[in-house]
Amino acid sequence: MKLYYTPGVCSLAPHIVAREAGLDIALDKVDAATKRTDAGADFLAVNPNGYVPALEIEPGCILTEGPAILQYLADRAPAAKLAPPAGSLARYELQSWLNFITSELHKGFSPLFKAGMPAEAKTLFKDGIGKRFDHVERHLARHDYLMRDGFSVADAYLFVVTGWCGFVGIDLHQWPALSAYRARIGARPAVQAALAAEGLLR
User: Fold this and answer.
1) Alpha carbons within 13 A on the beta-carbon side of 197
2) What end-to-end distance do the CA atoms of the chain give, in Å?
3) Are 74 and 102 contained in the same domain?
4) What are the per-10-residue average pLDDT scores of the chain (202 residues)?
5) Looking at the 3D structure of the chain, how many domains does it have?
6) 111: CATH
7) Domain identity same for 71 and 97
8) Residues in Cβ contact with 135 at an 8 Å cutoff, skipping those fewer than 6 apart
9) Among 191, 137, 136, which residue's Cα sits nearest to residue 160?
10) Checking DSSP bridges between strand 26-29 and strand 2-5, what pairing results, if any?
11) Is residue 202 part of a domain?
12) Domain housing 35
């Protein structure tokens, strides 16, 4: 398998999960501006939408969209227990968290990285993210992870998304449980290894 990624963006989540699962996975870095990969491929031929992550399962078989890729990788290594079994109530709870992160948090951050976005609009988006963080904070004040049984693919995704706060002027210290959670997830060996591989450790 090959993961197409760009350092520090949402593709970091499946990178972390692949390492947590102990999966043998190749990495091919995508230049976000040119849409060329380090291996010399035209990334638009891999994913016409032009964004990462994309997972090449085998030649000609490409899976896109982060939440789908996360679950696929977890199911390739069930012993790692990164996702509950398919069909279980817990699996639907996991999907609920993944949908929350991708639609309520991830997409809320996207406009904050656009240079032409008016300051007033950015303030509205930050306020919206803050309200969603309030929800996560209440949960993490009572639980170490998003899922009751421990670390899951949803935690990898939330760790990555919340890591963008410093780039857009959101002070995460307003949410102490979420801040402590980020420190806990960030200390995991697989997370450290993924960050190092993408050149993100200072």
Assistant:
1) 21
2) 29
3) no
4) 97 98 97 96 97 96 98 98 97 98 96 91 95 98 97 98 96 97 98 97 82
5) 2
6) 1.20.1050.10
7) no
8) none
9) 191
10) parallel
11) no
12) 2-80+190-197
